[in-house]
Request: fold
Amino acid sequence: MNQVVKKIEEAADFIRSRVRTKPKFGVILGSGLGAFANELEVEAKLPFSDIPYFEKTAVEGHSGFLVVGKLGNTPIVSLQGRVHYYEGHSMETVVLPTRVMALLGIDTLMITNSAGSLDLKMRPGNVMILKDHINLMGINPLMGENLKNLGPRFPDMTEAYDKNLIQIMERELAKVNLKYFTGVYCGVSGPTYETPAEVRYLQTIGGQAVGMSTVPESIAANHLGLRVCALSCITNLAAGLSDQKLSHDEVTRTAKQVENKFITFMKSFILELYK
Reply:
């Protein structure tokens, strides 16, 4: 058996040994957005450090727990935080939790993140539904031997973000009065924020937001045949678009400000999706 597949199966078996629930919906909660998992009727809350081959989170705003529970009658698995490529982890490690959630039985994955705005109309505290992405990380999580048990050698990415899910997200965001946009997310490796020249380049190639995550998980999830949707919490204007210097404190502070509306949206979205 391929060693990557073996790791995924061992991690999934460990989680199954501690929960009875078979989740349908998975969500990755980005910087400062982890509080949603506390709204579940929790069956188990497992530290990443306890799960085979999961790595501890090391970035503020990523608490590092896998939470299994229910929202109403919908079984859910959520990740409170993630590990990033810029931390020195391999892409295999970055997307391992996504693959494990798929093996646990989810059919839909929502990916959330905090991102910088490349569009002056999108301000901190707004959100952006991803309609597409541009991978500028210089690497792809599917490079190397294809894992035939997981998906095809050349997965189609024409609709990386499910159009039907996007429509539901739009309706539910409007209901909770959370100002939203739809746009293209540029995934970069980090950990430096972009230079003003890089920001102008990202604008030129069609980006509306930029961040250091999400793209690897989206690619891995599409490879697995999951329905995927994603939401960026806009936490700052990208470099050169304001006079303010960028910091991670600003990111987590802004995410905290939208926390309550984000939680309300997530509840209504999931209940609508599985009604």
Observations:
- The first strand starts at residue 25 and ends at 29.
